[in-house]
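Researcher: Please translate sequence to structure tokens.
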Amino acid sequence: MTEKIENVIIIGSGPAGLTAAIYAARANLRPVLIEGAQAGGQLMITTEVENFPGFPDGIQGPQLILEMKKQAQRFDTTFITGDVTSVDFSQRPFSIVVDGERTYRTQSAIICSGARAKLLGLESEARLMGHGVSACATCDGFFFRGKEIFIVGGGDTAMEEANFLTRFANQVTVIHRRDKLRASKIMQDKAFKNPKIKFIWDTTISEILSGPSGTVEAAVLENLKTGARAQRKIDGVFIAIGHEPNTALFKGQLDLDDRGYIKTEPGTPRTSVPGVFAAGDVQDPNYRQAITAAGTGCMAAMDAEKFLESQEGH
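Model: Translation complete:
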């Protein structure tokens, strides 16, 4: 019996992976999507999504993923539950191993394994994510109109998000574990000049507290120099200490940048290995939106189709 070789295997089941599956399936490529043990990506921990086109009243993150999955299934995508544990892109067909035991072979691959926001690691932070705790100002700032919020971080992203949040919030307080910011001079100046932004130095959040409604109502601040703790009433906490792409599997297989994101040819989803494409947050440190991830998923599927056509008969 000859070994089955797939046309395209998609790794990841967020908006990028599911869009890639829809396009690849409609191109008759019969894609196989490995969705991971925790399927759906970052939208699975998002409550209301109000900026994805086509949903004027908003949609819950998990519901949006479910609708996309149904669409991919309708066009004959095969879904495999499990985590990719190793890959070999050194020769075609490529090999992809799931859960350390099942090996799949494929003529092309689309990597949509995403990125995850670095978090403080608090139990209360995880429990209240989407209920007053957020790692995305662009996604959730609107919900904090007229409120007072904390933002944790000291780099360019934190300053950019702090400035953005002042469009909605009455006051934004930056909580930073050092006594000076890491952000570039221009971003620091902008934040210092904004009358709605305050700073608390040498401090971290040791706990986030919720009220009867199940949403954030206070945070415990800990001074890292004195150890003193104080509880402060607050309406929301934004975490802006960076993102980490899920690319450990691909080190040594694909070219990565100094932050670990997969390098793609500008304006395309093509990686350093012909036949391997990357889409979504795994190759995008800048936008990190469901809609941009979906767009690059479409591009990757279309480029995979062209690649496979170019290989036929070779």
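Researcher: Any highlights?
Model: Helices lie at 15-26, 61-74, 123-127, 137-140, 156-165, 185-193, 290-311.
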